[in-house]
Automatic annotation (TrEMBL):
This is Major facilitator superfamily (MFS) profile domain-containing protein. It is found in: Cell membrane. The lineage of its organism: Bacteria, Bacillati, Actinomycetota, Actinomycetes, Micromonosporales. Residues 1-49 form the Major facilitator superfamily (MFS) profile domain. It is a multi-pass membrane protein. Keywords: Membrane, Transmembrane, Transmembrane helix. The keyword rRNA-binding does not apply.
Length: 49
């Protein structure tokens, strides 16, 4: 959700500073996507051994 909002903010940025802030938020939001995805995958596909 945060990545989507930051993407919309970047798309409608009307100044350079606003674009830089939006891109920074995209970096933070993108960094949180991978760990949460891996956590979901390991939870959904448990090895029952």
């Amino acid at each position: 959700m945060a990545f989507t909002l930051a993407s919309v903010l970047a798309a409608y940025a009307d100044s350079g500073l606003m674009l830089i802030i939006a891109r920074a938020l995209l970096g933070v939001a993108g960094a949180t996507l991978s760990p949460s995805t891996f956590a979901l995958i390991t939870t959904m596909f448990r090895d029952e051994k």
